[in-house]
Write a structure and sequence with these properties.
Blueprint (H helix, E strand, L loop, with lengths): L8 H17 L2 H8 L4 H28 L3 H29 L3 H6 L4 H16 L2 H25 L9 H8 L1 H18 L4 H27 L6
Bound molecules: 5-(aminomethyl)-2-methylpyrimidin-4-amine (NSP).
Protein name: Aminopyrimidine aminohydrolase
Pfam families: TENA_THI-4
Enzyme class: hydrolase
Length: 228
């Protein structure tokens, strides 16, 4: 009889959030990207809010270098920071340019309540906590987007005339997947020395930020802003 493969810590994390991620994949905003039916103005609002999000999200990678113990780990975080600011945010700048959103408008965009709550949660937990806490906060962002991109690429059919081809291609790409995979591997390494109590804290961060991911899609779809 073959021995079943040992479960990694991130398998456990993924299993716990599967219902949330499934709802995320089926969210009308994500489905609208897939079939191209999402109105350009809605996509533009998402691009602007996501740009604000990424400005803060990128700071987590800088914090990652501060909390790293060796130059190889520092170098990975520095690549993640560079890719986010230059490759991923270039996509946002390009889409905004095409939609007619001026660079000044993009730079001046203010975070919606959900956006603010999500980034403040991650920045706070990452500043106060360990490197493992930092990665467990940031991981649903990278991992769930790669899953979504991969699924959409498989399900969308021809992307030749599709309005959101570049978005799908970026998040489905091997390059993006490799960055998410590095974070997964790193978290599994760090988890090996943790007590069950410490693992439960990591699990909580992963669950909370997975919920925020869903709420972010919901926010850009329905346009939830400040009530007054
Ligand atoms: C809200 C959100 N989550 C994740 C990603 C992928 N970096 C993103 N761009 N925006």
């Amino acid at each position: 009889m073959t021995k079943s493969k040992e479960e990694r810590f991130t398998d456990r994390l993924h299993r716990n959030v599967e219902p949330i991620w499934m709802h995320t994949h089926l969210h009308p905003f994500v489905q609208g990207i897939k079939d191209g039916s999402l109105p350009k103005e809605r996509f533009g609002y998402y691009m602007k809010q996501d740009y604000v999000f990424l400005k803060d999200y990128a700071k987590l990678f800088a914090l990652g270098t501060i909390k790293s113990k060796d130059t190889e780990t520092m170098s990975w975080f520095s690549s993640l920071l560079h890719e986010t600011l230059n490759t991923e945010m270039d996509l946002h700048r390009e889409y905004c340019h095409e939609i007619g959103i001026e660079p000044e408008e993009l730079e001046a965009e203010q975070a919606s309540p959900i956006n603010l709550a999500y980034t403040r949660y991650m920045l706070n937990a990452s500043q106060q906590g360990t490197l493992a806490e930092l990665i467990s906060c940031m991981l649903p962002c990278m991992w769930s987007y790669h899953e979504i991109g991969t699924l959409l690429k498989r399900e969308a059919g021809s992307l030749a005339e599709h309005p959101y081809t570049r978005w799908i291609e970026m998040y489905a790409s091997e390059e993006f997947g490799a960055l998410a995979q590095w974070l997964i591997n790193e978290l599994n390494k760090l988890a090996k020395d943790k007590t069950e109590q410490e693992l439960a804290v990591l699990e909580e961060h992963f669950l909370t930020t997975s919920r925020f991911e869903f709420m972010f899609w919901d926010m850009v779809y329905y346009g939830h802003g400040w009530p007054v």
